[in-house]
Prior knowledge:
Elements: E1 7-12, H1 16-27, E2 32-36, E3 50-52, H2 56-65, H3 70-77, E4 78-84, E5 94-99, H4 101-113, E6 118-121, E7 124-130, E8 133-139, E9 144-152, E10 161-164, E11 167-170, H5 180-188, E12 193-200, E13 203-205, E14 215-217, E15 240-244, H6 247-255, H7 278-284, E16 292-297, E17 304-308, H8 316-324, E18 334-336, E19 339-346, E20 363-365, H9 375-394, H10 407-418, H11 442-453, H12 458-480, H13 485-490, H14 504-508, H15 515-521, H16 530-558, H17 578-587, H18 592-596, H19 603-615
Parallel strand pairs: 1-2, 1-9, 2-6, 9-20
Antiparallel strand pairs: 3-5, 4-5, 7-8, 8-9, 10-11, 10-19, 12-19, 13-17, 13-18, 14-15, 15-16, 16-17
Amino acid sequence: MFHVKHFDVVVVGGGHAGSEALHAACRYGLRAALVTLDASKVGVMSCNPAIGGLGKGHLVREIDALDGIMGTAADLSGIQFRLLNRSKGPAVQGPRTQSDRQLYLQAIQALLSQQDYTLIEGEVAALMSSGGAIAGVRLADGSEIPARAVILTAGTFMRGTIHIGNRRVSAGRMGERAADELSQQMESLGAVFGRLKTGTPPRLNGDTVNWERLEHQPADADPVMLSFLSKGPEVAQVSCGITHTNAHTHDIIRQNIEQSAMYGGHIEGVGPRYCPSIEDKIIRFADKTSHQVFLEPEGLKTNCVYPNGISTSLPEDVQEAYVRSIVGLENVEIQQPGYAIEYDFLNPQGLSSDLESKLISGLFLAGQINGTTGYEEAAAQGLVAAVGVAKRLKGVSPITFDRSTSYIGVMIDDLITRGATEPYRMFTSRAEFRLKLRADNADQRLTEQGYASGLVSDLRHNAYQEKLRHLDRCRDLLSSMAVSPNQARQVGIELGLDGRRRNGHELLSIPGVTTAQLADLAPALADFDGASLDQAAREALYVTYIERQGRDIDALARDLSIKIPESFHYASVAGLSSEMIAKLSAARPESLGAAKNIEGVTPAALTAVLLSMKSQGLKNAG
């Protein structure tokens, strides 16, 4: 049994949410303990071996801007860095790395070891309370751990059930027991539960893959890192293989669909719409004859391969049959079968903006227990919960997480105002301010707040201040330029015939104009580092749009009280997706404010509805 010691905060669970929450609590100087079932698995990547991506990369950058550890660990373990959406605008580009699974875990544990905390192996069986407030946790062995606050990051462990075909196993993830007692206690306290499910594909023996038959996807030649403080990759870079399912694959799955746990009626939980199982893909997209599969090596010293795109809950023999029907995998060996996992989550509408539960004062929830899916969403919530604990216990300066300042704020607002009826995943489309909420400027949005709060170290703050000094000098030089149309034409920039001179910012706002062209006109620009020039160019590109977008959002905020006629025809709204049309038509909200609180309805959709109503001259919409 654990020797009794009093803590400011106990973090329950050592996944991505728990690791980030623990590290942040320690940075605030809180006396912290981490309770986890298996200390060797703190920071483990339980599903795909990757960090970042579209929307998710923005979250990682924001965590990093606040001195979090996810971005650093990803950079230390990254074996394939890629900037997604590179051909599109900076606002929707997402930094991502495929990580060596073991190196990532080691990096997280090493970063945590630099902090002062107590590690306790055990299962939390119950929360202790006194007078309606948290008093600590009780372990399954009877040990009691007193604490002033608890951050619960249970992941998929609360009444977790693994499904492979007709086989069901009580587990939080493969090979680890579920946490059933905690679910039962919280239910008795009045917690509103739901069931969600997620899935994972079979793991493959890379030595049995016919790589010569596959298309290869290399890492970027100019890698974009996840942390602002990282200079470049730390380990060797690898390529992924790309293959596709085919008609034969789909036939095998259709013929055995009733053996799938999902389609056989064994699972009641709702799965992630944007990351469907291979069974879902075959049924929901019956017109498609193939689906892409990325073969992602799980590390530099393992032959295990993660086939991204074919998660499943079919029986093992069917998994082997359909996997071997795919080009390049004809003789592949399955090291671990794919499975679906179903688990409890709590309605996040029962949380404050600090992620404190309304059930018990001092209880904070973070991660998949709140209805989200993904490492990045979980880690961001862990950080928010730790900030909330520090604010409660130490009175630190709060950090503002709202829709106008961060993707973290977008996620928290979505969860606590709209709840979750399916696993919540971050996308850039969820943010109405996405032109200003870019991955590249997360530090400019959050680092000063974090430093004032006591969360950000002097080391990071000094590096950020140095970056700003370079950027400000670059901005000043661009502003002082006065380029005539003739001068611009000499470097391939056409400005029209009005004869007006333009400064550097105006020139960079023209699509296709580069900082290299401007350096020919102002040689002093060559003295600046590429990062400062790139940042200035991105700011110039978006400044007009950001101002316009800000006006649109301000107008929308004023107009949320506008009534929507019951007969309003959503299908006639220009730019409204079929998903938005279906949601709004089914709910028939009385006002734009009511529409805003419908899960999944985006600010862009609300703006489109408002503009459509105004164009139709509907009452009160002017």
